[in-house]
Each structure stands twice: as C-alpha cells, then as structure tokens.
Design a protein that fits this description.
Length: 407
C-alpha cells in the first residue's frame, strides 16, 4: 500500500502527528507493534500545558471519558525530610488570573487509546500488532517498510515519521541514537493505600533514588496511585533483577516521608520495568525522515514532561512536514527546519532537567535546595510552573534565581 506518510509508533507522539497530518489532507498510515489499550512504563502525569494541546487534537470528549484526576501542584521531599510545595494556580498572568490551575493524571492505557482513536477519526489508517521489520530506501528517497511476519503487506511512503519511543528501532537502524553513560532503571506500579495522597503529586528523593507518587483517583474513589521509582543501574540493578516488585516494595520503605504511610498498601497492577532511560538523537531529521517524541531522545523522568514534549513536537513536525509534502520537497535541508524549531523549544528545559539530576545525585545539594524553596514559596511555584511547561525555562535560568537557589 502507498501512503504520503508512514508513522511507526502510535503512542502520543505518533498518534498526535497522525492527527495533524491527516487533517492537513495527507494519506497517513500509523502502525504499532502493540494492540491498544496497552500499558507503558510512565508516571502518567500530564503537565498543565499538555491539556490545551490535547484539546487541539479534537479529543476533548475522549479525554473526559478517560476520567483524568486533577493535581493542584507538587510536593517535593528531600533526603533529610525537608519539603516544599509548588502550586500551579499561584503563577498568574498580568491581569491576575491563574495561567493554569491543574495538571492531569491518566492511565496511559486510556490516554494513548484516546489519542489513537482521535487519529482514526481524523482519517489516519491505523494498524495495531504491526511490528517494523526491514526498512528499505527506494531510489527516489521514499521508504518501503516491511512488517515482521508475512501477515500484512509492506507499506510505502514519501515521508517516514519515527515515533517508536525511547529505544526507537528506526533511529537505531539508522545509527541516530547515542545511549548516555547515565544508566538508570525505572519501576512503575499502580498501588492503593498510600495514606495522605490527594490533590498533589509527590516526589521523594533519598539515597540517589527517587520515587514519584501520582494519584489516579481521589481517596474517596479508592485512592489508586501511580508509583514510579528511578534507581541507579550500577547500585540497584543486581538486587532488583528477577524481582522488581519485591525490590520496589522494600525500597519504598527507605523514603523517610513515605515510610509511615504504607501500612495498607495493596499492589493493583504488576510492576513494569524499563532501563536505559537516557538517550540522545544525533539529529531529528534527514531526507524523507522525521523523529518525534522519545525517538528524539529522553533524559530522565523526574520532571515528567515527555508527553507534553511528544505532543508539542508532533505539532512542530507537522508544521514543517505539511508544506514540504505539498511542495514535494522532502530534502534533508528542508526538513532540518524541524531540528532547529525543536532545539529552540526544548533547550532550556533540558538544562533544567540536568540541574535537577545533579541535585538528585548529591543529597546535600537537594537538601539545601529544598530548604530554600521551602522558605521562598514564590520560587517553588516558579520551578513547578517551568516544569509544568507553562513558564519558559528562562524564569529559572536567571542568575538571580539560580544564585538564591544554591547560595
Ligand atoms: C519511568 C518513566 C516515567 C515517566 N513519567 C512521565 C510522566 O509522568 N509524564 C510525562 O509527560 N512523561 C513521562 N515519561 C515520559 C513519557 O512516557 C514519554 O515521553 C512518552 O511516552 C513519549 O511518547 P512517544 O509517543 O514518543 O513514545 P511511546 O509512548 O513509548 O510510544 C512508542 C510506541 O511505538 C511502538 N513501537 C516501538 N517499536 C516499534 C516497532 N519496532 N514497530 C512498531 N511499533 C513500535 C510502541 O509499541 C509504542 O506504542 C516517563 C517515562 C518513564 C520511562
């Protein structure tokens, strides 16, 4: 079958790109090895600025049906027990109104199925259970993609969009991915019975590990939470091998501000694990090729904005791809405009992620930052707004802010 665009991976990045391109009149094939609804190791929190991007996809009704839980902000707990809280609503526009009041928490099984449904509604042809096998470049630069197994026909397309996630097959085959020296493993479960969780997400840091607790429903509806822990592979890799859930339950007890709240803990969904979390792509485009979402690289889940980045990046990719497809110019030079736009959009945020990662690795620094932000609520609100994607990174990357934070 021949298409204008073939998108490999129907997570948020691929499905959102499919919606934009199908709405722009392109004949789009969207393929995924999984059958939806499927789980994905993720803390399942959407930064406030992701909600308008989902609304632009025209899936507001599907999102409501997915029953998101609303968070008012985050509480961070440092290794020595110091804590600070940032509220989304505290950041205001010049007219005094809050820019955003809440972020969302939604199981990925529901969120991703909703965006995929949106892609089908927009006219994309979606195929589930379709795993990418061989990739061929045709003489004119177009692509022929073969599925693993002989069950379905190959797909040909003018433009290939790699949206196949963190360990992207497309990026690896084309030699575009560089795996970082920072080796982390994430363990993610759904649990009930964590006392005192409600309208705020929590991040606990201790002993170079951290864990996020994000409520998927209010306590009165059962209090189901997403619990996502990130650990060092060198330190913890051996102890968790073969028994991630037992390790996770033990390790939860090492976080001082969680320890006393776990008496009624019940695990609801088996623990998902993922390693090699930090990956960088050498470039995000080439002739007849664009990378979106985690296929463009990923750093660390602490600030949890990958879904926003996937949705925003899908918009950027489509803004470059639609005129390029119309002009029949899919050259590397033309599509490089996407690399530049992506860099501009995310460079500052990446720097903040690296600063936060440094603090996680050095407990005294994290303790100190928590003490400062615990005393200066406006600074805490600002960093929560920046990580919530609705204040620019420059609000934190100012000498005044950084000096007050660490000195
Ligand atoms: C532990 C952890 C916690 C996180 N928490 C958060 C959070 O709270 N909030 C947040 O915003 N972000 C979070 N992230 C990041 C977020 O999960 C990702 O950024 C987001 O899923 C990226 O979307 P995507 O569409 O690029 O990739 P994915 O959602 O991974 O989708 C890729 C799709 O490609 C398919 N695929 C892969 N290979 C093939 C193949 N060969 N053939 C066909 N299909 C293929 C897969 O089946 C999958 O459906 C977290 C990440 C981790 C690891």
């Amino acid at each position: 079958m021949r298409y204008d665009v073939a998108i490999v991976g129907a997570g948020p990045a691929g499905a959102a790109t499919a919606i934009h391109l199908a709405r722009g009149g392109q004949h789009v094939a969207l393929v995924d090895r999984a059958t939806f609804p499927r789980d994905k190791p993720c803390a399942e929190y959407l930064s406030p600025a992701a909600e308008p991007l989902l609304a632009q996809l025209g899936i507001g009704d599907l999102l409501d049906a997915a029953r998101p839980h609303r968070l008012r902000g985050f509480r961070i707990f440092a290794p020595n027990g110091r804590t600070f809280q940032g509220d989304f609503a505290a950041t205001r526009a010049p007219d005094g109104a809050s820019l955003f009041e809440t972020g969302l928490v939604i199981p990925r099984s529901r969120l991703d199925a909703a965006i995929l449904m949106g892609a089908r509604r927009a006219g994309a042809e979606a195929r589930e259970g379709w795993r990418l096998g061989q990739m061929e470049r045709l003489d004119d630069g177009d692509w022929r993609l073969h599925p693993v197994g002989a069950a379905s026909e190959p797909i040909e397309a003018r433009l290939l969009v790699a949206a196949d996630g963190l360990h992207s097959t497309v990026a690896r085959r084309l030699g575009l991915h560089v795996v970082s020296h920072m080796r982390k493993i994430a363990l993610v479960a759904h649990m009930r019975g964590i006392a005192g969780v409600g309208a705020y997400g929590e991040m606990h840091v201790a002993g170079r590990r951290y864990v996020g607790v994000a409520p998927l429903e209010p306590p009165e509806r059962g209090g189901l939470c997403n619990v996502a822990m990130v650990v060092d592979e060198a330190r913890d890799g051996r102890s968790l091998a073969g028994k991630p859930e037992a390790f996770l339950l033990d390790a939860l007890q090492t976080f001082p501000a969680l320890r006393g709240r776990l008496d009624s803990l019940v695990v609801e969904r088996h623990t998902l694990a993922v390693s090699r979390l930090s990956v960088r792509a050498r470039r995000l485009s080439d002739a007849h090729l664009l990378l979106v979402g985690d296929a463009t690289g990923y750093y660390d889940p602490f600030t949890g904005e990958g879904i926003y980045r996937a949705l925003f990046g899908a918009g950027l990719a489509s803004e470059v791809a639609l005129p390029a497809l119309a002009a029949n110019d899919l050259s590397a030079a033309r599509l490089a405009a996407y690399d530049r736009a992506h860099q501009r959009a995310f460079r500052g945020k990446r720097l903040i992620e690296q600063i936060i990662q440094t603090a996680v690795q050095y407990p005294p620094l994290m303790d100190h930052i928590a003490r400062t932000l615990g005393r200066h609520k406006a600074m805490a609100d600002t960093i929560v707004a920046v990580t919530g994607d609705f204040l620019p990174a420059s609000a934190v990357l100012r000498p005044g802010y950084l000096l007050r934070l660490v000195v």
